[in-house]
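Hi U.,

Before I forget, here's the chain from the pilot set. I'm dumping it here mostly so it's searchable later in email.
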Amino acid sequence: MDEIFAATICILLGAIVGSFLNVVIFRVPEKGASIVFPSSHCPGCRTNLHWYDNIPIVSFILLRGRCRYCRMTISRQYPMVELAMAVISYALYVRFSLSILFGIYFVFCAALLAIIVIDFRHQIIPDAISLPGIPLGFAVSFINPATTWQSSALGILLGGGILYAIAAAYYLITKREGMGGGDIKLLAMIGAFLGWQSLPFVVFGSSLLGSVIGIGAMLKQGKGGKTVIPYGPFLSIAAMVYLYYEPEIRELFIMFFLPPA
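Structure:
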């Protein structure tokens, strides 16, 4: 019963934080916008929303996806982000239980989820999320039992350096910008939280996933090599996969890349 109660609390916490992430996702890309003021309101009629209109997931269902006051359609992004963060929170509980690792990586995954949606919507990774995330990841490495400050520091240097080198090489070959500075800062943040050991999988996994999605986008858009897709979401998804399946990933790495004794 205690485990069920704890899991329920984690799911509710994830949904509530997901509701806040929607505010971040919509407001951070806007220049000069505040995530605090004004309070939650309908983007159509501008009416301030009551607390019962802001219950994560539930309010969307009860209102049938429309504003209570002007009947404007509510973006499905709201319940999807809330549900996604609830699932992430539950997965973190299953992986780490209620420990310091749950708290550290809850914040980390919340930042990644916001980055995923913002990058898909606007093709940008806000410095307001990634830059503070780098020193934060390094700071918590001193209390993070899953990594060390040395591993975090090296993760920052290699994370930023690897993508910078790839971006520079791509530009030299094609004379086109293939990767933005936001991706470089994001990988540095990932290295800060997960350590340098995560970087080979994150880079490989994100490249593989991005290639599959990219081929589909090329066929759909018909733009060939000029098709543009954001890379930040793939880095973020690969980081979450590594976080959850780190032991299994390390075993596979040892099996395939290290010779038997």
